[in-house]
Design a protein that fits this description.
There is one protein chain. The chain is built from three helices and four strands. By secondary structure, the chain is mostly helical.
Length: 112
């Protein structure tokens, strides 16, 4: 096994500190990314008090939280696996379907 390479200890005075929360970053760019993502909520929901740093996050929020009030052009997905415990369940987000499919495959792989 190769020896573990020691990392030099950084002087925190050289780091870039977030004025909002005090988090420290190695570069100004990392600090700016943090500030834009965590503290600048430029996209406000028309239906509630929620605000988001990214428009994509706002759109996902509207599709999932306010799905009854907003007409959705997105289609619902269903699990394609035979033997799925919940074959009629609908998923409006592909990432949720993907997690479900992994669980289905794991359940099918376990011996009964």
């Amino acid at each position: 096994m190769p020896p573990i390479k020691e990392q030099p200890v950084r002087d925190l005075r050289e780091s870039y500190v977030c004025e909002e929360c005090g988090a420290a970053f190695r570069t100004r760019g990392l600090k700016n990314n943090h500030t834009n993502r965590k503290h600048r909520r430029r996209y406000n929901c028309d239906h509630c008090e929620s605000a988001f740093a990214l428009n994509a996050d706002l759109q996902r929020h509207k599709r999932t939280v306010h799905k009854e009030t907003i007409p959705s052009s997105s289609k619902a997905f269903t699990c394609p696996y035979d033997g799925c415990a919940t074959p009629t369940k609908k998923f409006t987000r592909r990432d949720n379907l993907s997690r479900h499919m992994v669980r289905c495959l794991n359940a099918q792989a376990k011996p009964v």
